[in-house]
């Protein structure tokens, strides 16, 4: 294992020190328990958005903390759920008196620990709603999941719900919007190579020199099919058709599209893939209103990519365009 | 070779199609010859900034085209200099009547082709100045270079000179500032793994399971030393000391620091590395005024990172903070 780390057990806390040093004007970091908040938290009169999950998916979630997106993020160890005490402490730290929305990717550990945290918060008199993201069309149930896994739609949901909260919308409205974003979002990922969890010290799985895994999970969980590599055009077609057929998306639908890198794929290739998707979208009569191309929800150094499509209406596009000021996503400010 | 591409010979043009599709409001793409311009080019009364180089280093340079940074970028084939006709056509396309500054990384092919392009432009009556970036302290001369290679300082230079041009400063002033940025910038890079050029189909070099290359070039050119991997803290110390000793930087110096990923290194590790650098900088009495952590000048899927330090004064920091609106760097707008 060749990684830019010191001791595997210190990776998360040392990365947090780097985030704190890199963004002193934007972020505050708590180390015991571990969570990141926007520097101006708590924002009085605003619904607080709190997310979290295993580390190793950066910029998700810590990189999306800031005005217009998350109030707090709770990083677990690499690919490991954050604990209830992290989530509870983070929620208390950013509570602005209007309640909190927990944004949870659908993995069993995350769901249980966020539920326990919400119970603790409610026992202290905090109002907490939760939204579960389960947008991965690749597999039903999985290594760490009952039902579908939560992946790329999380990024889009954190942006759109974050904008609604920043506008001063109340908890019920923000939670309802967030659930609608999840319902309208679908994703599918693939891998050329495995990732290596620092504490494991060896690749999570093995792929032959011409093998790829379609439907890969963001922790390297098995997907739908292990097959041979193919031209980018065919890869995108196969993945996009799977995503489009699932909602299903229809001609004339307006979408936000994310062509996401898994961490080890060059931006040159991500743009090439987006070009293939854009052509297919035009052929199918989809209206791509906005897009993201880059690394937004990653799996350490995994080579691969995922496609996320979110069906949107005017209101969602307007919220998308609202200012956002985070390390990982920034515009309008 | 497992890459998300179609035919190796189509990678660059297909990636350009994706860039055009992803940023229709921001960028314009010419395909014959190949160059990218900001959508509002030419900007009348503004000095035009034109850069370019081999593809495979994205977001450099195409991702830095936009208000506050470059007017045009000329992508060569992967790791191959752009041709004089690309640079000449791009310069003409963005000429706003105040002359153009060519920003050239110091590689022999780039230098020759930009010189030829400048001659062609001048023959047409365009005023052209050039700045050469040669900030890599790792080696004197190299596989593709006489003198030092041009690497990370290019990113900082394009931002700072771009701001000066956007403010309406004249060609001589912008060129002089750009040269000063190059003089004040130093970089050093390392690799854990090789990259693979699509047309070559195999890794550019081989490293053993515990081997690293210190002083690596952005095309995989040999560095100073092939050695065994070590803890991140020691890596950063060794690389930072080399950079600091070269200018040399002194206690009390104000710097902009860039901790840059080579393309395949997880953001989690880049933040960890930046944390190590920030501690060292504090120990040495350096004042880190601003920083960038992420993938800004890459080598395809290479795992590794580089450190760039730029000694700055008030004027440079102010220009750094000016708005910039490009796919790869964006704030204040």
Describe this structure in words.
The structure is a homodimer of 333-residue chains. Chain A is α/β, with parallel strands linked by helices and 333 residues long. The first copy, chain A, folds into two domains: 173 residues, Rossmann fold; 146 residues, Dihydroxyacetone kinase, domain 2 (Hypothetical Protein Tm841, Chain: A,domain 3), CATH 3.30.1180. In chain A, a hairpin with a 4-residue loop joins strand 13 and strand 14. In chain A, strands 1-2-4-3-5-6 form a six-stranded mixed beta sheet, with helices on both faces. A six-stranded mixed beta sheet of chain A has the order 9-8-7-12-10-11. In chain A, strands 13-14 form a two-stranded antiparallel ribbon. Chain A is built from eight helices and 14 strands. The interface between A and B is large, with 62 and 61 residues.
